[in-house]
């Protein structure tokens, strides 16, 4: 089976590291959406489930890509520290936006590290993460995925 | 890897080979090569075009808000983002100056370089049409920037990919539509393939 991320030069350590980082970010996102789903409320439940599925697929594709690049995929952590306490629909929605922000960062780095199809696929995933973050937040950031340009007042 | 030329190239012309040898393989580390790529003439041109596009987009936001003051509040955060993007682009240009002539740079505030961009774009007389026009402009620009990602050096590619993502997002906030192949990303979003044209 071909991975979502076409294999590149097996010697490309930088690209492999960046794919691993994206995989780690998807692991964290899958975990985080579980928390989001528990608190997001009935209105958002279907969408959270759909997005959770999408992120699982994405994670599986990245695993395959790591193997194609000759690496062994990083595993999920046993647990993740949430950036802030989540206990209602508002904080759950805010968490979903932060998850997508961080994912956008991993994909932006993969754009830099990869070339060819890997780079373009990463650019498209960056766009998707930015769109989902905007959906949860109701607003857009100036430069998705580029933490060095993030506004100092994150507004959490 | 840049040093490995196919055998046919080796036989084709000694001059080309020598030139490749001098420019690509005479010792710079991959990091130095990457930094040089960020400063190449092509990358510089791409940065300048990207900046000019952002200036035009900013002017369009201003024209729409001037013509339709009732939209100004809604457009303000989106306009601020375009402004922040311009600042980032300028910073990125400063970080990768032309190796030859840094002197010719440094245009004064409001200087001649962008006077051409200062002609206010025409704005539709209906507010809804003006918003749709802005959405189209964001989407079209985002599509072009995504395409440019392929050929850009790594740092610039990362910036362009972020700008492309930002443009698609601004467009989504303007008219609720997302790029055609992202239709599944959001519930209830209209997938439109505007940018593919």
**Number of helices in the DSSP assignment of chain B:** 7
The stretches of 5 or more residues of chain B where confidence is low (pLDDT under 50) are 1-26, 101-115
Q: Please indicate the count of domains of chain A.
A: 1
CATH architecture of chain A: Up-down Bundle
Radius of gyration of chain A: 15 Å
What proportion of the residues of chain A is helical, as a percent range? 55-70%
State the CATH architecture of chain B: Up-down Bundle
User: What is the H/E order of chain B?
Assistant: HHHHHHHEE
Please summarize the sheet with the most strands of chain B: 2 strands, parallel
Oligomer: heterodimer
Q: Tell me the span between the first and last alpha carbons of chain A.
A: 41 Å
CATH topology of chain B: Ferritin
The fourth-level CATH homologous superfamily of chain A is: Ferritin, core subunit, four-helix bundle
Structure, briefly:
Chain A has 156 residues and is mainly α. Chain A has 4 helices and no strands. In chain A, 65% of the residues lie in helices and 0% in strands.
What would you note in describing this structure?
The complex is a heterodimer of chains A (156) and B (197). Chain A has a single domain (13-138), classed as Ferritin, core subunit, four-helix bundle (Ferritin), CATH 1.20.1260. Helix content of chain A is 65%, strand content 0%. Chain A is built from 4 helices and no strands. Chain A has helices spanning 13-39, 42-68, 89-113, 116-137. In chain A, helix 1 runs antiparallel to helix 3. Chain B starts with 6 loop residues before the first helix and ends in a 5-residue tail after the last strand. The interface between A and B is large, with 39 and 38 residues.
